[in-house]
Amino acid sequence: MFTGLIEEIGTVRSIRTGHGRAELRLVAPYCALGTRIGDSIAVNGCCLTVASVQEEELSFDLLEETISRTNLGTLKRGSAVNLERPLAAGSRLGGHFVQGHIDRTAPIISFDKRDADRRLEVGLAGEEARYIAEKGSIAVNGISLTIAEINNGSFTVWIIPHTFRSTNLKAAKPGELVNLEFDLLAKYVERLLPRALTLASQAPDPAIDDESSKKTKIEG
After folding, report:
1. Which parts of the chain register pLDDT below 50?
2. With CB atoms 3.0 to 4.6 Å apart as the test, which of 20, 29, 31, 106 could cross-link to 64 if both were Cys?
């Protein structure tokens, strides 16, 4: 479990693909410190398992599912990636609960500077737009952000100077794909609500039961 607060911007040392899988190697001095094989790291918001640690370098194995569902397959040598280690027990939760399970990639429509801040518009259309809500949370490349606007086929978030400096958004350009993870709560509500409504529709009406009870008593 992660929080969407980026700890370090890592640099891709190499990415080797073949036979439906890939090996991703990163330079990450901060996150590599104390990290062991088998630990989890969120890379651009995608939870990956550390396959090897060599001083300041971390490597990960990427499955075909990971490559097809995320923007990790578009990385090349020198690319910047957002890194976050899992939430430690007792730590402050500064963002929101992020699983590291990417739902989809989406293109950046615009990224404009507005005074000290920046306005980021990301394309999102179709059925998946139901998972977002104004003032709700979303993880963009692993960054916990608050949705400011929901537009026709897109949504907008605002990027403060600290987030711009501390993440790979400082290199982002229109047309690039970003990883999106929708709020965990929205997905659980969607799954639970139909069953709850079905059970409610099958439950006996208390008013009818009460009338039936009174009728039985009178006739008795």
Report:
1. none
2. 20
